[in-house]
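Running co-folding for nickel (II) ion.
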Amino acid sequence: MGEADEAFVQALGHRPKLSITEDEGIPLIDLSPLSSPNDANTKHIDDLVAEIGNACKTWGFFQVINHGVPLEKRQKVEDAMRKFFAQPLEEKRKVRKDEKKAVGYYDNEHTKNVRDWKEVFDFVADKRILMAASHEPEDKEVPETFNQWPDYPPELRESCEEYAREVEKLAYKLMELIALSLGLPARRFSSFFEDPTRSVRLNHYPPCPGPHLALGVGRHKDPGALTILAQDDVGGLEVKRKSDGEWVRIKPTPGAYIINVGDILQVWSNDVYESVEHRVTVNSEKERFSIPFFFSPPHYTMVRPLDELTNEQNPAKYRAYNLGKFLATRRQSNFKKLDVENIQISHFKVQELANELDGALSINKK
Ligand code: OGA
Ligand code: NI
């Protein structure tokens, strides 16, 4: 990368490591007990719930196999997205997203204010997209926008729509297992997902001449409830191991999905589960493709710890926040480089509030 590409260069402490630590412990969970639920299987389901609970606690990440999403649906999207991204930039930019159009093609995303070495195509699995217009609390406007489908390849739209419908089924099943793993009724989260937001991103990470300086996606946490990610066989997704803060790589497992806890689940569970930081490294020879599916409640949801998971000894660790406003604040930094850190759920931590008050009081005392 030449000087012109300085925008991609990560600060020293955030650059990829020269040696890769392959994950040894990220759980690989077999969901086959779900496909034949009968009495004889109850034991298996209990084991499955325990495995999922452990994985969410220990890693915030796990992989699933025998998940029920037909491989050929995924294959179709992968084929179509390769064709889309292989086009010249002017073609792709015809469906470019911007401040007004929430979804479409984009090649200038910043994570933590450093540019990512990637291009993306975003869509939602809904007829329309409702997102708060701005982060201003008084601004109640929630304009509708629509998916922007490219002319080429013509099969992209249908393959994406079909794929999202299949992955959504998996998302509902996982939310039930997660509810059980928290000691809640299986359908505890259902009311949040009657009108869900299902956004899907097609990621293309081209070969990068400076893989030791740049990242495909900088370190971040996913703001939704749950992410279901398909990665190809190139590899590059790294997760921050909770036990020691080391970046470890998730080895691609053919046909598997990578599941991770998002910020909303962290807040709902009052920190029993945590949304774990992850990032993507790039390499100089191979391009890489991935497809995350982000599952969230609707924009008007107030996100707060569940009553059942809080009590006097263990009070709510977060103030309630409005999801749409939170995401609108986040979006601001996608289009420009900001000087401050982007908003995070930690800003709603009750302890943070106490610190802010302390700060304010000590200023007053001066
Ligand atoms: C993301 C993400 C990982 C990947 O898009 O939020 O973390 O492997 N992607 O592409
Ligand atoms: Ni992510």
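Result summary
Residues 198 and 295 are 5 Å apart (CA to CA).
The two ends are 49 Å apart (CA to CA).
Job closed.
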